[in-house]
């Protein structure tokens, strides 16, 4: 078995190569490269059985390189190495592609080695259609930058309100109220953007929807309390806001 390691992190290449030598002494590492174009050149020259491939690399990323491999070198098995979290990689569990989640553990690497040995023995090939689905799952979602300012009305005036200063948004009949704190007083502004559309533009780590009509800036919440009926309420700038049953797990997990 011949292998190539492709990763732009020198230390990871070193440690992965050493771990593979220890766990799989029969494997010959024929090249260790730092970017996708070097990897493609070595694949064409060495015709490896397997490539340990980082997803994010300069010049040609792992996703683009994987497509080239499956077009030209379908016998080469790919093992992705990636820092993506487990949820983004669930697709691998039932597909004919393996992955190693950084930091790579010896136990997980041993599982990968056994899987690769099995595939070589059975001469199992990878389905290009399955590969396409998996690669799509790996592609990062290019979300726009979170909203930083909103243009909000107060009387006849239009104000630029910093989103970080917003206590909470509350949907009314035909508009959304924006509440901020200035000194000891709470200011209320109005915007016309529907709450659902607004929510998609906010930083999901900072703004939580606690009720169908309310989205709060979690960083400014003073405390969460439970009433005698077991229902949760948050306190923010002296205001008590109920938490819907559907949103209560957000706080119970804290």
CATH third-tier fold name of the largest domain: Rossmann fold
Order of helices and strands: EHEHEHEEHHEEEEEHEEEEEH
Which whole number gives the mean pLDDT?
A: 84
Classification by helices and strands? alpha/beta
Percentage of residues in DSSP E strands? 25-35%
Which consecutive residue ranges, at least 5 long each, have pLDDT under 50?
none
Plain-language structure description:
This protein has 254 residues and is of the alpha/beta class. The protein folds into two domains: 2-138, Rossmann fold (3-Layer(aba) Sandwich), CATH 3.40.50; 149-252, Beta Barrel (OB fold (Dihydrolipoamide Acetyltransferase, E2P)). The protein is 30% helix and 31% strand. The chain has seven helices and 15 strands. It has helices at 10-23, 36-46, 62-72, 106-122, 128-138, 195-201, 248-252, and strands at 2-6, 28-33, 50-54, 77-82, 98-101, 149-154, 157-162, 166-171, 176-182, 185-191, 207-211, 214-217, 223-226, 232-236, 239-242. A five-stranded parallel β-sheet has the order 2-1-3-4-5, with helices on both faces. Strands 10-9-8-12-11 form a five-stranded antiparallel β-sheet, with no helix packed on it. Helix 2 (36-46) packs parallel to helix 3 and helix 3 runs antiparallel to helix 5. The protein is elongated. The two termini are 48 Å apart. The model has no long low-confidence stretch (mean pLDDT 84).
């Amino acid at each position: 078995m011949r292998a190539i390691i492709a990763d732009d992190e020198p230390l990871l290449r070193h440690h992965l190569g050493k771990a593979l030598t220890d766990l799989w002494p029969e494997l010959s590492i024929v090249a260790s490269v730092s970017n996708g174009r070097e990897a493609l050149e070595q694949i064409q020259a060495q015709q490896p059985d397997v490539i340990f491939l980082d997803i994010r690399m300069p010049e040609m990323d792992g996703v683009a390189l994987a497509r080239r491999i499956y077009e030209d070198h379908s016998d080469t098995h790919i093992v992705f190495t990636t820092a993506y979290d487990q949820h983004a990689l669930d697709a691998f569990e039932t597909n004919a592609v393996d992955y190693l989640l950084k930091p790579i553990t010896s136990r997980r690497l041993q599982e990968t080695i056994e899987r690769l040995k099995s595939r070589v023995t059975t001469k199992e090939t990878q389905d290009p259609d399955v590969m396409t689905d998996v690669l799509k799952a790996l592609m990062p979602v290019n979300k726009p930058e979170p909203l930083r300012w909103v243009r909000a009305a107060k009387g006849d005036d239009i104000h630029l309100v910093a989103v970080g200063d917003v206590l909470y948004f509350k949907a009314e009949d035909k508009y959304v109220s924006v509440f901020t704190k200035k000194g000891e007083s709470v200011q209320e502004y109005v915007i016309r953007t529907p709450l659902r559309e607004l929510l998609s533009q906010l930083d999901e780590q900072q703004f939580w929807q606690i009720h169908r009509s309310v989205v709060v800036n979690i960083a400014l919440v003073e405390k969460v309390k439970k009433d005698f009926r077991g229902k949760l309420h948050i306190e923010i700038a002296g205001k008590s806001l109920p938490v819907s049953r559907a949103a209560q797990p957000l706080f119970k997990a804290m």
